[in-house]
Amino acid sequence: MEAGGLRLRVETRLGERPGIVVLMLDGVLDHETAAPLRDALEENVGAERVVVDCSGLRFCDSTGLNVLLRARLRVLAEGGRVELSGLHPPVDRMFEITGARRLFRVYADPGTALHAPPPAS
To answer: Would you say 81 and 49 are in contact if contact means Cβ atoms under 8 Å apart?
Structure first.
């Protein structure tokens, strides 16, 4: 999905088990490009797990952070969780300094995320 030729591509892939979705991001996530991610997250609110692969994300501003935080709350309300993988600087730094990194399980890559045991209740 591309935002009218803008700078963010979001690819949705199904996980190995039902209820698991991987959203692969490529580009820049900001006010102008957030719509494709917002739409993909909304389409997957009922998923057990949504792993957002940020390994192709070169930049994320406060709009992108807010999209992920809101999605996290919606997915949690439905009994699922949103997890992140592949955070690179400066994206990782933005999550760290805002405190948002503590709210998500963060993995090195989507493969590690998909094979991780579920969190203890």
So the answer is: yes
